[in-house]
Design brief:
Blueprint lengths: L1 H12 L1 H26 L11 H9 L9
Amino acid sequence: MAVMEKLRMFVAQEPVVAASCLIAGVGLFLPAVVRPILDSYDTSKQVPPPVLSDVVASMTGEAYDNGMG
């Protein structure tokens, strides 16, 4: 139990550093868990991306008729 005692002493002496290490550990662990969960969802429901010329026209303020209505 020497490791637990040293860990408790570290947390008591340096609480900010210990909290920072904990937050960093969570930050490193989350992508390993969340990404596979997101990948498991059905991807067939994704919306197709807009036509690039429509995006450019809307960003520049020009009226662009793509012939689709």
